[in-house]
Amino acid sequence: MSKILLNRIDAAKMFQVQNLQYSEILYLSDTVPLASGKMGRVSVSNLGHFYCLYVTGSFDTQFGAVDDGTDYLRGKLIDGSNQKQLFNDYVPLSLWLTPGRKKSLVASGAQSNSLFYPIPFEYLFSANSDIILDVKNDSDTALTYRIAFFGVRVKSRESVSGISR
Fold this sequence. Notes:
Number of helices: 4
Oligomer: single chain
Order of helices and strands: HHEEEEEEEEHEHEEE
Helix content: 10-25%
């Protein structure tokens, strides 16, 4: 490593930032019953606010015993702290989790080779709140989705009091 880079690192400042924020991933997974809806939620917790930067995920595409590749799940993302709807309508999961389609193991007998590219989604969720996903399933089969929210945990001053470097 170059000595120029080493001379520019300010460890005290880096530790100060590190004590107040760090990267984190929040996971949300649920199974939605056939021809109905369900609200899934993941807690932001009291560790501090969560600044989401990216989102990715996968979902099943089965109709009965056949995996036809059609997206039967549509969802509306909601900020649980104030019930603010982040999407103005139910959006097919294939539009914001692309290419998250995952073949059903039951229907196809083989795992798909899905690629998961996080897409930018920037939003600050407050501490002690939930990230809510209201999902509708238009299939005649219960379907599962899995979502990962990538972001930065922003700790409150109270939660890091007494920590020093």
